[in-house]
Specification:
Elements lengths: L1 H44 L7 H10 L4 H26 L10 H27 L15 H10 L3 H28 L6 H30 L20
């Protein structure tokens, strides 16, 4: 009996160790993604400032050496891994909110739901703006940043009033709740009191990032409210859904 069960025990132990390591990598890539999201929202929120502040921030980004390598190493690859492994976790997970409607159970379920929303949102946001997959009206021109963002938003009424509000809400919630879970994963918030205090900090992070996101959304739709230089031939009218 012992010789038959030993390989099974070793295989289970190996699988557990691999899962432990993958969860840690998943957590790290989530932190990288979250840090990028905060910076991204802050830069986009400079649309609210008078003059060419947003354009200047975009110019700084596009002037970085080895930009494509930086994007893939620090943004795209971590996002891809985090997404793929997150999908696996979601498939294997068993939320039990129907039976045990505790606060953390709902947070777990909302975290998985927000992740699915983010995946769809990123496909539209990244492939549309950066890789022009959905046509030139949805693409981003870093030489004329404010105008191209405005054109992107005005292509369809669904984009600024449905797609981006949902995407921002899901992203900010996933970020804040993910940071809360990461502190527990890495043993930084072990006690109930520490978890509660860190929860308050993450709630503040959620509010701040939401403000950044919706400020950027408002001024990308209404750049004229702060006198941003958007050429009239680039400010396309809403064409419907």
């Amino acid at each position: 009996m012992s010789t038959a069960t030993a390989p099974d025990s070793a295989a289970k132990q190996s699988c557990t160790t691999q899962h432990f390591l993958l969860r840690r990598v998943h957590s790290l890539t989530g932190l990288v993604f979250g840090g990028y999201l905060v910076v991204h929202l802050m830069i986009n929120a400079t649309l609210a400032q008078v003059g060419d502040v947003y354009q200047e921030q975009v110019n700084k980004l596009y002037s970085l050496p080895f930009l494509m390598g930086i994007e893939w190493a620090l943004i795209f690859l971590p996002i891809i891994f985090h997404t793929i492994y997150g999908i696996w976790i979601t498939i294997k997970g068993q939320p039990n909110v129907n039976h045990y409607g505790y606060h953390r159970n709902w947070q777990y379920t909302l975290q998985r739901m927000s992740a699915m929303v983010i995946v769809l949102f990123l496909v539209f946001h990244v492939l549309g703006l950066k890789y022009h997959l959905f046509g030139t009206s949805l693409s981003f021109d870093h030489h004329n940043a404010t105008a191209s963002v405005h054109r992107h938003m005005m292509t369809s009424v669904l984009i600024p009033y449905v797609i981006y509000p949902i995407g921002i809400l899901a992203s900010c919630y996933h970020l804040a709740n993910g940071f809360w879970g990461a502190a527990i994963t890495w043993g930084l918030a072990v006690s109930a009191g520490a978890q509660r205090r860190w929860g308050y900090a993450c709630a503040i992070l959620f509010v701040i990032t939401m403000v950044f996101g919706f400020v950027a959304l408002y001024y990308s739709v209404n750049p004229h409210t702060i006198g941003a230089a958007v050429p009239m031939h680039n400010a396309l009218p809403i064409q419907g859904g």
